[in-house]
From TrEMBL:
Included stretch of the parent chain: 372 to 1051 of 1051
Domain Helicase ATP-binding, residue spans: 48-211
Enzyme kind, highest EC tier: hydrolase
Protein name: RNA helicase
Species name: Flemingia macrophylla
GO CC terms of this entry: spliceosomal complex
Keyword Glycoprotein assigned: no
Residue ranges annotated for the Helicase C-terminal domain, each copy included: 234-409
Length: 680
């Protein structure tokens, strides 16, 4: 490895040169002093000793004790990076980025050099990298290219208590490679006390406890249930701000939209309070928050002001924000749920577990006594909340993980060493889907299609769509669509005071009722034609940031196409070819309009609706294919394209029979509904 640095023995000489550099030096020294104040610091030697003596170690310590930022540095200082990198996995990408940024500061190096991070579609590492923070999903993908992880000397599976799907699969894989790589050190670190379970799983690995400093936290419940927790959270924040002694506030909300709403309302109401009240600094933090704004939550609050952090679950254990004295916990989070019968997955606002509630409360007592305001009753807490959150593996679609394991040559999935096995039904469903997508053959073996699909870090249906674009000669178009889909629902910008303009601009891309996928393609291509103009984005109510991300993702998908030897060809004038390609990946997501004016999914006869944001929401084509279902007030199909029913039988004859798609055109349909495009 080139230029391995020796942590403490930093070469200061060059830095003395300029004033700016000496300022950097004193900042670095200050950071070194801060490092020594962390609860983990007194245990440095003991910890290094334990790592030396044991191949696998379970580490438990309160959030904020220094596990994530310090342990990899200690190991580096002790020489573990001489023969390989140190990987530290995080369930959330914001955490991976933010922690890597912090550690690079502490080591006085540029982010992406000695300390880097790797998240999906963004690799901020280099030849020099020795400490690599990464999402658990990315380490899982690295197994595909390097099944023994030989570039690593240490793997730290951090935030193990989160029990994400990728973390659970990693457990099985790292446990296996540790057997034939005695030189590999394995650390499993967790913020909660269920360490026994990890220890049992890893053949009774010793548990290293980092005693935390914890101050008492006063817990308050509401007397009666809150009808509107968002409003209650805002009111409580303001009450704390005007009545309580100094100290920052942390509010747990469920997602970006909710956080943005809260931010807007808070800004509005604090303006109404006048100048007698101290300044309230509002800091949102969620997964898609742009990097440059993420750092803001860590900036110290100026004297006389108060900070209110509006966060998702990410602040529960992944990120520690210093100075928090008050926590507001409405008691909800967004959680995936999966119905193995229908194969439908939805993201639902769900009550948290008691374990989560405890973690949230704990965030207020890190630097002094704190207060937690739970926006639910003590009765609710004791009777309605589960003790622990169900591990993701037991409530999610497993198709992508099964494809990854199959490509690792792990065939006997029923006997994979799961810490908690997934429901057999869900495994079966995943195998069925992969078979339907032609990724597996009848014997359950990976096909050529499957091998190609596995190269893409995407959901198998999206990967299949991309692989199928070869046949329809539209790979160039389809990767633009895939990239636009993968940046989520943040392409179109709809300011409250300009909704009509924004909607008109959006509908321009839907001319001819081409459907949402092709509208996304048109957006991308139009932007490209303006040479990626920011001005064009403003004029069309398009979020330039999302577009740039889509462009990055697209570039990477183009690289992967080359790897699987699919030529880049555009077929933009043949919309049917593009729609057939979409159908090749998404045929399990087809729905048909009923006489009642509602849609039913073809395979499972579930009632669904076209999302109001869709360009086809008023058109109601008779047959559609959709990207995803979201459950809000109803089951909505999001990103919808019209299809011809005969395509289903042509493309997926093993999945649909003629009787499934017989067009009952004699039956009466509501006026205006069910006409195909050609009828218009
Ligand atoms: P743990 O992993 O045990 O929860 P961390 O190593 O994440 O603890 O945090 C240790 C300290 O580093 C905390 O005081 C935290 O505030 C600080 N810290 C972590 N990330 C950042 C960051 N991006 N910016 C500023 N401080 C940070
Ligand atoms: Mg941590």
């Amino acid at each position: 490895k080139a230029s391995v640095m020796d942590g403490d023995k930093f070469d200061y000489e060059e830095m003395e040169d300029s004033l700016e550099k000496s300022r950097a030096k004193s900042a670095l020294e200050a950071l070194q002093e801060e490092r020594k104040k962390l609860p983990i610091y007194p245990y440095r030697e003991e910890l290094l000793q334990a790592v030396q003596e044991h191949q696998v170690l379970v580490i438990v310590g309160e959030t904020g004790s220094g596990k994530t930022t310090q342990i990899p540095q200690y190991l580096h200082e002790a020489g573990y990076t001489k023969h390989g990198m140190i990987a530290c996995t995080q369930p959330r990408r914001v955490a991976a980025m933010s922690v890597a940024a912090r550690v690079s500061q502490e080591m006085g190096v540029k982010l992406g050099h000695e300390v880097g991070y790797s998240i999906r579609f963004e690799d901020c590492t280099s030849e020099k990298t020795i400490l690599k923070y990464m999402t658990d999903g990315m380490l899982l993908r690295e197994f595909l290219g390097e099944p023994d992880l030989s570039s690593y000397s240490v793997v730290m599976v951090d935030e193990a208590h989160e029990r994400t799907l990728s973390t659970d699969i990693l457990f099985g894989l790292v446990k296996d490679i540790a057997r034939f790589r005695p030189d590999l050190k394995l650390l499993i670190s967790s913020a909660t006390l269920d360490a026994e379970k990890f220890s049992d799983y890893f053949d009774s690995a010793p548990i290293f406890k980092i005693p935390g400093r914890r101050y008492p936290v006063e817990i308050n419940f509401t007397k009666a249930p809150e009808a509107d927790y968002l409003d209650a959270a805002i009111v409580t924040s303001l009450q704390i701000h005007v009545t309580q002694p100094p100290g920052d506030i942390l509010v747990f909300l469920t997602g970006q939209e909710e956080i943005e709403t809260a931010e807007e309302i808070l800004k509005h109401r604090t303006r109404g309070l006048g100048t007698k009240i101290a300044e309230l600094i509002i800091c949102p933090i969620y997964a898609n928050l742009p990097t440059e704004l993420q750092a803001k939550i860590f900036e110290p609050t100026p004297e006389g002001a108060r900070k209110v952090v509006l966060a998702t679950n990410i602040a529960e254990t992944s990120l520690t924000i210093d100075g928090i004295k008050y926590v507001i916990d409405p008691g909800f989070c967004k959680m995936k749920s999966y119905n193995p019968r229908t194969g439908m997955e939805s993201l639902l606002v769900t009550p948290i577990s008691k374990a989560s509630a405890m973690q949230r409360a704990g965030r207020s007592g890190r630097t002094g006594p704190g207060k937690c305001f739970r926006l639910y009753t003590a009765y609710n807490y004791h009777n309605d909340l589960d003790d622990n959150t169900v591990p993701e593996i037991q409530r999610t679609n497993l198709a992508s993980v099964v494809l990854a394991l199959k490509s690792l040559g792990i065939h006997d999935l029923l006997h994979f060493d799961f810490m908690d096995p997934p429901p057999a039904e869900a495994l079966l469903k995943a195998l069925e889907l992969l078979f339907a997508l032609s990724a597996l053959n009848k014997l359950g073996e990976l096909t050529k299609v499957g091998r190609r699909m596995a190269e893409f870090p995407l959901d198998p249906m999206l990967s299949k769509m991309i692989v199928a674009s070869e046949k329809y000669k539209c790979s160039d178009d389809i990767i633009s669509i895939a990239a636009m889909l993968s940046v989520g629902n943040s392409i179109f910008y709809r300011p409250k005071d300009k909704q009509v303009h924004a909607d008109n601009a959006r509908m321009n891309f839907h001319t001819g009722n081409v459907g949402d996928h092709i509208a996304l393609l048109k957006v991308y291509n139009s932007w490209k034609e303006t040479n990626f103009s920011t001005q064009w984005c403003y004029e069309n109510y398009i979020q330039v940031r999302s577009m740039k991300r889509a462009r990055d993702v697209r570039d990477q998908l183009a690289g992967l196409l080359e790897r699987v030897e699919i030529e880049l060809t555009s077929n933009a004038n043949d919309l049917d070819a593009i729609k057939k390609t979409i159908t090749s990946g998404f045929f399990p997501h087809s729905a048909r309009l009923q006489k009642s004016g509602l849609y039913r999914t073809v395979k499972h006869s579930q009632t669904v609706h076209i999302h109001p944001s869709s360009g086809l929401a008023q058109v109601l084509p008779r047959w559609v294919v959709y990207h995803e279902l979201v459950l809000t007030t109803k089951e909505y199909m999001r990103q919808v394209t019209e299809l011809k029913p005969e395509w289903l039988v042509e493309i997926a004859p093993h999945y649909y029979q003629l009787k499934d798609v017989e067009d009952s055109s004699s039956k009466k349909l509501p006026r205006g509904a069910g006409r195909t495009q050609e009828d218009r």
